[in-house]
Amino acid sequence: MKTTDSPALLRYLPGLSVALAGALLANLLSLPIPWLLGSLLLSAAANLKGLPVKAPAAGRKIGVCIIGLSLGLYFTPQMVEILLSHWPLLLFGTAFALLLGIIGSRILYRYADVDFRTAWYASTIGGASEIAYLADRSGAQAAKVVSVHSLRVLLVVTIIPFFYQYMGYHDTDSDRLNQNAALHWGGLLLLFAFGYVFARLFEWRKWSNPWTFGPLFAALLLTVNEIHLSAIPPSVSHIGQLLIGWSLGNRFAPGFFRSAPRLLAVAGGSICLSLLLTAATVYCLSQLTTVPLPTLGLGLAPGGVAEMTITAKVLHLGVPLVTALHVSRLIIVVSTAGMLCRFFEKRMAKPAKT
């Protein structure tokens, strides 16, 4: 019998087993964010070897939906007031992300032998799926854009948690004590139903990251109005992280690092440079604000919304502020990417040869 005729569960069982094994091994070794990092690394390694570890298309949607709901539960009325007082930091975070994108695009365009539009969208610090769509629509090489974003996520999600573990950064989020931790199974099902409805609404409206932002907004609306349906059990959060890690690991197909070696090498150097610039900026900024340095680091890091907020959640590092920084950044960066690409293309791109 062909694989395509097999029940879905059997088709995905090898991949699920590998992802679960990676998560359990990472947990056993006391690695940072083990359920995400372990499943990602082992799934990626298996996928690079051509092993059958395919993740279901709905896996990442379910994973980010769980994370979105859990993040929304942090936005109590008291936390919203605190966040509103940090609006200058939110603007700075967006401007800093745009600056990193400009620097990265210049590096890729000059040294990676790609056209400017491909370099721009590959360096834009935004949601990978939204940026890939914009890249394809603008005539850029979408496959190369996706490859660079996949490498960025892998490096950022690997380097930052290990660095934080080495530095001992955790438990600076004193506001987490204000959360309602009561678990109600009926309320939990209702919470997921609300999350699903909002995710489909965001998807229908074609808004960014619908399966993250829809559930996040649903839980936020309930929490800010002091309506508590249920907390998210740790085991459910672990499932969400595992599904996200498994899905991310699937991006690394056999031959990934041989597909465009020069581009990936230059991109890797550019990503590491952006991390160093982030570290220097965060250190300077920490001297001017009362926000803890580890929280600033995650909030300004050039990683994805789900990955960085998971790190903040697991390590208890200012989850609401980190979430707000990444959400505001993503919305503005994605909405201005096309306009800024045209603006800088006129000034940076070499004139076409005649």
Topology summary:
Blueprint: H1 8-28, H2 34-48, H3 57-72, H4 77-84, H5 87-111, H6 116-123, H7 128-138, H8 142-167, H9 185-204, H10 210-224, H11 234-249, H12 256-259, H13 261-286, H14 293-300, H15 305-315, H16 319-348
Helix pairs in contact: 1-2, 1-11, 2-11, 3-9, 3-10, 3-11, 3-15, 5-6, 5-13, 5-16, 6-7, 6-8, 6-16, 7-8, 8-13, 9-10, 13-14, 14-16, 15-16
Commentary on this structure:
It contains 16 helices and no strands. The longest helix has 30 residues, at 319-348. It is mostly helical and 354 residues long. α3 crosses α9, α3 (57-72) packs across α11 and α6 (116-123) packs antiparallel against α16 (319-348). The chain has helices at residues 8-28, 34-48, 57-72, 77-84, 87-111, 116-123, 128-138, 142-167, 185-204, 210-224, 234-249, 256-259, 261-286, 293-300, 305-315, 319-348. 73% of the residues lie in helices and 0% in strands.
